[in-house]
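Continued from yesterday's entry.
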Amino acid sequence: MSLRLRLALAGALAILLALGLAALGLAQLFGAHVERRATAEMSVQLDQVIAGLDRGPEGLDLARPPADPRFSVPYSGLYWQIEEVGSLRRSRSLWDAALDLPADTLGDGAVHVHRLAGPDGADLLVLERSITLPSRLGGGPVRAAVAMDASELVAARRAFMADLSPYLALLALALSAAGWVQLSIGLRPLRSLGARISALREGRAERMGGHWPVELRPVATEIDDLLAAREAETERARTRAADLAHGLKTPLQALMGEADRLRGVGATEQADGIEETARAMRRTVDRELARSRTAARAVDAQADPARVANGLIAVLRRTPEGARLHWLQTIPEGLAVALDEADLAEAMGALAENAARHARSKVVMSVRVQGDRMQLTIADDGAGIAQTDCDRLMRRHARADETGTGLGLAIAADIAEAAGGTLVLGDAAPGLAASLYLPLARGTQARPMERHD
């Protein structure tokens, strides 16, 4: 799961949780508000009940009942009751029921609010007040109460939540959309960071730079420091490899001189062995130099394979093996591979020397562009090799015959892999075809095929 999706889901869940808690809180606040309003209204009705008390022939009675007609409708949900020692007066709405007021002690004028069971088991909100009657009404304590069905309060709260729910849903959508926009803006530098790293890898940039948000600046700085350290280490490795190679060349040259001296005194077999060993060591040194140079090649390096091929053919035609062959070069001018020219010459030279060694009469150099890669093939018309031997020849010091050192193909493979390509051996029917698959330099386009022979 992407970081953006994780944050978006976490934000949406947080919004839903917050709005859910807010809805519960609002429902509680609205319920408390409705109950306070109902209590205030019942207090007015209780005042009306107390103000309407009178003493008649049958005792205490309510001469002026409250105006609300629900007090006269049986089980309407609105009730009043007057309780005096020895007598009980109640509204017609109570019918044959009575409010079961708790036996608590109230001071004169004190008001209590109760939750009681009413007619048919209904939940009632009861407001009770204790008063002392004046002497004209006979004196003595009286408990007056007004009650209403609490289900009306529950229904009001449910109606409030039903009205509020669509707005909460719209608010959740709006907050989620705002969170997504915030994530898109906030994570945009991460996309830029990825693009910059890709540019570094492809050679379109050299450093991350410092134009990053404060949170990403340490990452960019560490990457730049890592690149600088890698370049410095690579340069040191190149220098050490070059020093080692140049240090070995003098002893190798001395060995060649010693071989000439032995051959002069008739020790031909020993001289040949020393020369073969010295040549193998020299090729190994050259290979390590090529590898160190390729490892530190410039990110914007490019080489023209046609020009390199022409130069190699010109050199090989002056050798005994190359002079007897017909060289066919069909590489178009203007193509460029993402490789240093010296590295390309080293790789193509190794393959061309191998082809010249085994060809009967002809060597063909050709290319084929496949998207952003080039297939550069050097094929001979020699005896060829079995397909099962191709992988073996790619290993260091592996040879198809007793000539050479067996390093040419390995050097070409190393250079191709360092450039992001590969070396593939195949059957040329007849002969052997060695193909270098190399990335094209940026902006390179294939041109019409040209022939040089």
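--- second protein ---
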Amino acid sequence: MSTPRHRTAPEHTHPDDVPVLTALAALADPVRLTLVRELAGSPEWSRACGTFDVPVGKAALSHHFTVLRAAGLVEQRDEGPRRVNRLRRAEFDARFPGLLELVLRTEPSA
């Protein structure tokens, strides 16, 4: 008989507590940039972790979301078996005005 697995709620860093270099490093990775762009084009709390089109496995995807949470860019919550996400756009924009807008309008590299 197996015991049920309980997921720990993810920890979130508020953008006010994020140094600019941490934010820039989080946005510099192509996979994380793709995650941010896809979240920016989706309604809040509508995207589960497994619904993103990125070329990484589950463990690497989890790491990328951890980095984005630590940079104050993403908030996550559990809804049943799914972990859903939202881009913390307003909070991040208040901390780093114009940065997210610039990143989102810049074309991805080929």
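The longest strand covers residues 74-79. The longest helix spans residues 58-70. Will compare against the first tomorrow.
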